Amino acid sequence: MTTTSARPAVEVTADDLPLHCPPAKAPAWNLHPRVFLDVVHTGEAVCPYCSTRYVLKGEAPKGH
Q: Is the Cβ–Cβ distance between 21 and 52 less than 8 Å?
């Protein structure tokens, strides 16, 4: 899957929740304010700062 800018979507699983961008291992030069993203209800989310698209793979956790 790709975005309109041809950047691949970042696949995440239930183990990655709660999901936030930038991820913990992002390089320091690429940081922006942390924002939490809800991928459980729609299956995907786009970061409002960097436009990275995250796609939930597998089952959503129960109770979310």
A: yes
- Within 13 Å, how many C-alpha atoms sit on residue 57's CB side? 8
23 assigned to some structural domain: yes
Please tell me the distance from the alpha carbon of residue 61 to that of residue 7, in angstroms, as a whole number: 27
List of residues 6+ apart from 2 with CB closer than 8 A: 8, 9
Domain of residue 23 covers 10-56
Cα–Cα dist 42/45, whole Å: 8
Is this model's pTM higher than 0.90 or not?
A: no
Q: Residue 20 contacts by C-beta under 8 Å, 6 or more apart in sequence?
A: 34, 35, 36, 37
pLDDT, average across residues 24-48: 93
